Amino acid sequence: MVMQVGRTSKRFLVMGSLATVVLLAGCGGADDRKARYHDRGVALFEEQDYARARLELRNALQIDPKHVDSLYYLAQVEEKEQNWRKAFGFYSQVVELDPQHADARLRLGQLYLLSGGVAQAQEQVDQVLAAAPENADALVLQGLIHSREGRPEEALSSARRALEIEPGNISAIALQASYHESREEYAQAVDLIRRGLEQSPEDIRLLLLLGRVYEKSGDRSAATDTLVRIVEARPDEFSHRLRLAQYQAATGDIDSASATLRAAIENSPEAIEPRLALVELVGKAEGIDAAEALLKEQIQAQPELHKLQFALADLYRSTGRSDEVESIYLEVIEAAEDSEAGLEARNKLAIHKLQQNQPDDALALAEAVLEVDARNTEALLTRAGIALARGETDAAIGDLRTVLRNEPGSTRALRLLARAHIRNDERQLAVENLQKAVAADPSERASYLELAQLLVAMDRSDQAQDVLKRWLNNNEDDRDVLIQLGRIQLGQQAWSDVRDTAEALREHYPGEALGYY
To answer: From residue 229, how far is each of 277, 504, 509 by CA, in Å?
Structure first.
């Protein structure tokens, strides 16, 4: 009996050891797979194959959701594809996980600055410079902040300091050239840019700046040649062809603009953006009927490009042809069924039904999408909006939280969630969600307005003024926001502030009576 027990114990020990080996091997295997996914993602990013890079990096993050390097490269992928909100979210995660990640902080600061968040951008710069005072890129961003704040001499000083530390820093060269451009010292700006191009002949930032300087100086020929040079350097990036076409159209050369866009279509027959840009150009030059005819011609030639049909629906909506809008969406639904295009058509038709005051039909369409894709953001937002309108706040909150788990920076979801909390008399929660919306996208005006209105309702008018002033720092001529600010100041009988706001209205809208009144 003792022997049997001993054998059993030994067998269990062997099995336990094997289990440990298997677990350890599994851990090592996971790390190896993560590394392979990450390395492939980085390689694809360097090759500018952003769609496949995103997939590989996401695979790495499936194994380790807190892998900082994969999050950082995923943020860069989204930034390259101009998915600013997603890039912001990923950079924020990197900084949260690794507060010393200088590159992520600077990228985050640049996004803040681009969207008007000067104070937030300054906070990122301060963090980087505190740890590394000689960081040239941080000094450049500091210079850009100075420039945005109307302190050009300090911006120039930051650029010069960055160039002392890193003489070939292209961003610093561009910042210094921009200083001379702002003072209409075009020859000096061109000289600086050319020196930078000697080091990096195809640097797009410098070429774009050079084109802008030529344009401002009135040298159309040189501006056009520079934009052509950019297209030749990056023939597969449509944004550069579009910029050239827009400049040609703005200078009255519609034929050349049309030729540029048609060449872009030939270069990328499956791409939708060049076709829509050509439709827009034709619409402006020849009218809506010509744009409609061109869209129909393109749809007939490329029926699988459903975004062309969506564009036609938008055109019909703009001219009040609602029956034809619905007809197009139904055609796409029938043709595309449960594919991505079919789901998008259902979502668009649901919104159209809401605009036609048919919430039951809209809800049915959203439910149909969610049967196929339970996490579909648009369908969840539609269903949440309908639930909120019907007073079903708990259902709305559930759907909105699902959206925010998938897209933490969705300002639409955050604003709807704030409205749901207001319905539940949870005003502080509403304030917090609107503050998150402002932080997630400082360029979205509606979030500022809703937050200010809520703060006024909560007798926090001073805070409401601060919110509106943050918006006006970068949008000083926003009539509606100036009016709302003036009303808050009137309510507080802050006459000196009212006078300042009235002066701003008179300055920006001298032909209107409101500022004088």
So the answer is: 21, 43, 41
